[in-house]
Amino acid sequence: MEFSINKSIEILERTPYVLIQLANNLSEDWTMNNEGGETWSVFDVIGHLIHGELTDWMPRVRTILEHGESRAFDPFDRLAQERESKGKPLPELLDEFARLRAQNLNALRAMNLQSPDFDRRGRHPALGVVTLSQLLATWAVHDLTHLHQLSRVMAYQYRDAVGPWSAYLGVLHCEGHGS
Amino acid sequence: MEFSINKSIEILERTPYVLIQLANNLSEDWTMNNEGGETWSVFDVIGHLIHGELTDWMPRVRTILEHGESRAFDPFDRLAQERESKGKPLPELLDEFARLRAQNLNALRAMNLQSPDFDRRGRHPALGVVTLSQLLATWAVHDLTHLHQLSRVMAYQYRDAVGPWSAYLGVLHCEGHGS
Predict the structure, then answer these.
(1) Is the dihedral of CA B68, B69, B70, B74 positive or negative?
(2) pLDDT number for residue B175
(3) What pLDDT score does B177 carry?
(4) Which residue of A12, A19, A65, A171 is 20 to 30 Å from B121, comparing CA positions?
């Protein structure tokens, strides 16, 4: 499928409500445990998504529109949520994510971007030249990669409870692929 | 985490509403495309979940309680949704799944199962002896394995649109692990 602003927004506007249905008022056994070591819990992932709304996606859209390739994006701090979310209740984080996402999509719609805009180029600090359409498609797929991760982190908590059925449950054999 | 009937039901009762938020009235580009070949679309997965509510989970609970290890479960037809869902609109399938899941959870709660019941044993046609707790944990993780799959199938439709960011998006590097 080719990039479409409307089909990207379709995903982006749903994600907060998907996550609210999945995680609001869920037991902490599901939301506060991770996959061991430095991996992330459901709580950590929601904090990461909030940080992206504040510092990553729309600021990068604006950097492309204002500076093109002449200015690289600010690097994204993948550990910021440890500082910013600590001690907050998960329902509060989910509401904050929904509020920030709605604000950002309103701002995006207000830009009234048209076909030629989506080919405008920017510069990623590690990946090099990227386009506005790639940034907006990535924002949507970034939601999906974290939904993929959340389902895996939650399933992991029941990895022993399923007994021999583990062999049939693909999510228990996913190695995370860096997400 | 050890098996808990309440923590299993927490997942099971949320899944239909997670899927409604994710897929109801979403463009067919997201819901009707698959990952190529004989793989499943979002539409196919919802059909598979409906078939499980009708023929798999609660019938197997009853087989364990009534027959123990003396009678193997009926095998699950993994392709039934091709016949049963064909031509139905996705919102109708999502509603049907929500209705069947609610009915099944009401039936499960009405059984008022207690700790010793969860160790009762049944016989899986391929896996051999399993327990009631393993069956109920698997029902919940089966939801999560398909949520994991849905996020991957949807992300796949934008695999080219994200450009060089593909390297950072784990969901685009998941090979499915048989789910």
Answers:
(1) positive
(2) 78
(3) 64
(4) A171
d(CA A32, nearest CA chain B) in Å:
12
Q: In A, residues 96-125, which contact B (CB 8 Å cutoff)?
A: 124
Instruction: Give the best residue of A118, A158, A172, A175 to mutate against chain B (max B CB count within 10 A).
Output: A158
A155 reaches B (C-beta below 8 A): yes
- Whether residue A158 and residue B3 make contact (CB cut-off 8 A), yes or no, is yes
**CA A74 to CA A56: how far, in whole Å?**
8
| Residue with token string 């598979």 | B48
A142: contact with B, CB 8 A cutoff: yes
Residue B68 CB: number of other CB atoms within 10 A? 13
Neighbours of A86 (CB within 10 A): 9
Kindly report, residue by residue over B138-170, the tens digit of the pLDDT.
999 999 999 999 999 999 999 999 999 999 999
Based on DSSP, count helices (H) and strands (E) in chain A, helices before strands.
7, 2
Whether the pLDDT of residue A178 is over 70: the answer is no
Element containing residue B4 per DSSP (H, E): none
Indicate the pLDDT class of residue A102, thresholds 50, 70 and 90. very high
Best CA proximity match to A57, nearest among A14, A24, A100: A100
State which residue of chain A sits closest to B16, comparing Cα positions.
A21
Token pair recorded at residue A12: 């982006």
A70 and A129 Cβ atoms separated by less than 8 Å: no
Res. B48: pLDDT tops 80: yes
Sign, CA dihedral B85-B88-B93-B95, equals: negative
pTM passes above 0.90: yes
- What pLDDT was estimated at residue B179? 47
Beta bridge partners of B128: B124
Question: Residue A163: its chain B contacts at CB < 8 A?
Answer: 130-131, 134, 137-138
Whether the CB of A34 is below 8 Å from some CB of chain B: the reply is no
